[in-house]
Design a protein that fits this description.
Blueprint: E1 5-7, E2 10-11, E3 14-15, E4 22-28, E5 33-40, H1 43-60, H2 65-81, H3 83-94, H4 98-115, H5 118-121, E6 126-131, E7 134-142, E8 145-149, H6 157-168, E9 172-176, H7 183-194, E10 202-204, H8 209-217, E11 221-227, H9 230-242, E12 246-250, E13 255-259, H10 265-277, E14 287-293, H11 297-308, H12 328-344, E15 347-350, E16 369-372, H13 379-382, E17 389-395, H14 398-406, E18 410-411, E19 413-417, H15 421-430, E20 435-438, E21 454-455, E22 458-459, H16 466-472, E23 474-482
Parallel strand pairs: 1-5, 8-9, 8-11, 9-10, 11-12, 13-14, 13-19, 14-17, 16-17, 19-20
Antiparallel strand pairs: 2-3, 4-5, 6-7, 7-23, 12-22, 15-16, 18-21
The structure holds nicotinamide-adenine-dinucleotide.
Length: 499
């Protein structure tokens, strides 16, 4: 076994040269081997980095839109050129198959491309002569130092929901990636420097709760963009806002796919398998609950089972369909849900435990697993499992299915499969979920729309990227101006009225 590589903070584009008091182990989930040791930042180091970022912001916040756009375009080209090597880093630490790792970089690139249009996106409004010879205009300015705290499951894409827009808006960024797969963020951050971003504008601190708490309480940090599990999202939202910060905290999910009797069942079965088992179910938009409106359940399950039989689980570098789970602990937790489902009385249609795996070593694998006859009181339904476990719930009607979805604590994504336009239109209107797919299983919005769920899937008011992202990373000002001319009217202590 080779010595684990050291992974350290990237401060203003330069690797940190200090000695960390604490570190975390990073694994190749396909082999089970520890491949890295990531330095954990102390609160003192976070303070140093935030202070440096604040100094860098003083200049970057006033950089011309032309200069910012040049950096963004250069970054876009570099990211595009290096996407294969970054995808390889993702697969090596997260475990997702290479094509999926490349897919997340492509979705991240879309946000970079959106941010390249920042001169247009930051245009304010101007009204001439709102009163006689008085003009009013609005402008948006950067916040200062903004923090991003990201999860393990999209080590490149989730940071890119925020970082390109934050930088384009003139902010300085301190990001704390997941300690489980930290290398991709370092590789992407290095590209910002190469693209010409001034030193100190983009910084990476690695770590755990200590680093997160230091960011949440630091007076120079103006906003926090968090993505992760619901309990931590709630904590980040409450702590960040209590410390005066603007916070958007995206949490966990339990995404339902409602299949109506008139749906194309082949399309629905393909979608359920792709969205249930892609990235080993470790997607916040994964489908984990399939709600079948009778009488379709038996036929749908048979089609899904046929498709599951063709899936190959294994090392993501070998062209398999599905990779391992991210850590041994997470794999054990997900696997324990399979027994919990059996114990609760659900029907285990396909058991992924001990399935055949195309990999060397002791990787963290659970093959695709399917339950039928799941009821809303079972833990395999109530909990976010975040693994390749798909549960089928049978309902008698559209209304029963809708009520089930709306009573769930989460509201990230959902999908309806039907050929009835009226039913689909009713669903988009009535369902209490932030992102909806109609015959589309993972309805992740394009970069120029905004991404975010409802209920326990998002704490805060602003969704990620699109115009909501631009607004989150800027503050508005409205200017009322009058340039004196010979008609200047003299003293008047009355409340200003527009004449
Ligand atoms: P997580 O909540 O364990 O970790 C997220 C971040 O919080 C990491 O950077 C981690 O280091 C930090 N963290 C962990 N414990 C902390 C603590 N006690 N105090 C402060 N910070 C802490 O989430 P994860 O396991 O990395 O990611 C998976 C979760 O993220 C799932 O619940 C998934 O649904 C969710 N997710 C949601 C979205 C969305 O858009 N809503 C997108 C991706 C992932």
């Amino acid at each position: 076994m080779s010595t684990p590589a050291r992974i350290t903070h990237l401060i203003g584009g330069t690797p940190w040269e200090g000695t960390a008091e604490r570190s975390g182990a990073v694994f190749n989930p396909a082999t089970g081997e520890q491949t890295g040791a990531v330095d954990f930042a102390s609160a003192a180091l976070v303070d140093e980095v935030v202070t440096g970022a604040h100094a860098a912001w003083q200049e970057w916040g006033t950089a011309s839109l032309a200069k910012r756009t040049q950096v963004l375009f250069a970054f876009r080209e570099l990211l595009h050129a290096r996407k294969d090597e970054i995808a390889a880093l993702i697969t090596a630490e997260h475990g997702k198959v290479l094509s999926d790792a490349l897919g997340e970089i492509t979705r991240g690139l879309e946000v970079v491309e959106f941010a390249c249009g920042i001169p247009h996106l930051l245009k304010g409004g101007y009204s001439e002569n709102v009163s006689t010879k008085v003009d009013v205009y609005s402008i948006r300015q950067s916040l200062g130092v903004v923090a991003v705290i990201s999860p393990f499951n999209f080590p490149a894409m989730v940071p890119m929901w925020f970082v390109p827009i934050a930088i384009a808006c003139g902010n300085a960024v301190v990001i704390k990636p997941s300690e489980k797969d930290p290398s991709a963020v370092n590789a992407v951050a290095a590209l910002w420097r190469e693209a010409g971003l001034p030193e100190g504008v983009m910084n990476v601190v690695h770590g755990d709760k200590e680093a997160v708490d230091a960011l949440l309480t630091h007076p120079l940090v103006k906003s926090v963009s968090f993505v992760g599990s619901t309990p931590i999202a709630k904590y980040v939202y409450e702590t960040g806002t209590a410390n005066g910060k603007r916070v958007q905290a995206l949490g966990g999910a339990k995404n339902h796919m409602l299949v109506l009797p008139d749906a194309d069942l082949d399309l629905a079965a393909d979608a359920a398998v792709n969205a249930g088992f892609g990235s080993a179910g470790e997607r916040c938009m994964a489908i984990s609950a399939l709600v079948a409106v009778e009488p379709v359940a038996d036929e749908l399950i048979s089609k899904i089972t046929d498709r599951m039989g063709k899936l190959v689980t294994g090392d993501g570098t070998r062209g398999c369909d599905m990779g391992p789970l991210v850590t041994r602990a997470h794999c054990d937790k997900v696997t324990s849900y399979v027994q919990a489902g059996v114990d609760a009385g659900a029907t285990l249609v396909v058991d992924g435990r001990g399935g055949e795996v195309d990999a060397d070593g002791e990787g963290f694998f659970l093959s695709p697993t399917l339950f039928d006859q799941v009821t809303p009181d079972m833990s395999i339904y109530t909990d976010e499992i975040f693994g390749p476990v798909l549960s089928v719930l049978r309902v008698k009607s559209y209304d029963e299915g809708l009520a089930l979805i709306n009573s769930n604590a989460y509201g990230n994504g959902t999908a309806i499969f039907t050929n009835d336009g009226g039913a689909a239109r009713r669903f988009q209107n009535e369902v209490e979920v932030g992102m909806i797919g109609i015959n589309v299983p993972i309805p992740v919005p394009m970069a120029y729309f905004s991404f975010g769920g409802w209920k326990n899937s998002l704490f805060g008011d602003t969704h990620a990227h699109g115009m909501e992202g631009v607004h989150f990373f800027t503050r508005g000002k409205v200017v009322t101006s009058r340039w004196l001319d010979p008609s200047h009217g003299g003293l008047n202590l009355g409340f200003p009225q527009n004449v």
